[in-house]
Amino acid sequence: MRSFWLLVAAAAGGVLVWQARPWLERTCAPALIAEPRAIAPRGDLASDEKSTIELFERSKGSVVFITTTQLVRDRWSRNMFSIPRGAGSGFVWDADGHIITNHHVVSGAAEAKVRLNDGRDYSARLVGASPAHDIAVLRIRVPERQPAALPIGTSADLKVGQKVFAIGNPFGLDWSLTTGVVSALDRSLPAEDERTVIEHLIQTDAAINPGNSGGPLLDSSGRLIGINTAIFSPSGAYAGVGFAVPVDTVNRVVPQLIAKGKYTRPVLGISTDEQLNQLIAKQLGVKGVAVLKVEPGSPAEAAGLRAARSGADGSLVPGDVITALDGKAVDSVARLVNRLDEHKVGDTIRLSVQREGRAVELSVTLKAGT
Q: Annotated catalytic, 121?
């Protein structure tokens, strides 16, 4: 027992000596002179660092911070009041004050405010949106010092491995820059409406987190090549897989949203149903889209497409099955819609059709959908 207490006393004494040591050294030892260490010369920045800094400085003024509010009703007083809803990013499209962002950033919002890089805030008006492409256009009125629009690039010629740069406001941390590469091309994700698929998405490992949505994805020249729109992550945060709507889609959809407030898809004028489509495709042993109905006066009727019909016993007799559009395979309704979306109203396309067991080629001139 005595040895135990001796050990405790020794340990306590050691602690006291350890804590008192700095005081004893300052009191008993000669005064020490402590000065900042000499700074080592850094040398010039690397060329890739310089180019990245220059890109950010040149582009940040065109990127905006978007905050939204929504209206709620007090359950007791029945009064309406606004509360914060969310935040995202966007960028300047033109000199008229149009701001591009994701549809999901502003969907359901009662009000949106846009903050410019110099700290000025403006109320924004929704000009138009396309949920199927997750694109929305806002507009702000800037009386002076209008921020510059981002230069537009192309996405059809992107290569896996080339550098990309994302600027946005992740988690409200405004004007953040992340870098990476194009990880893959031509990815597909379900659109917000869950009826269509957003195709040709750019996959990147540049860090994209909540709040980055709607911000620009740039190439090494500082040109817009996509809108950061989604991440793939079990945790909901950055996991190295992000997606951007390609600029070729943006440059096709945005002018219509500005001009008409909505995006008008080119159509064939047929009725389809994915569940019936799968049953018919399985029955016929062919991958494609079954034509269930042809609308009178439609491009499909003019081209001679044949719809399904009822047999004498009441069963469904398949009509034409569209298997390809301009040589590109079509295996679902969503895929057909997106193949059509690659064209403009008035374009003439070539349809590959299975008709009663034989292959048929048809030319169809597209019209605007309603």
A: no
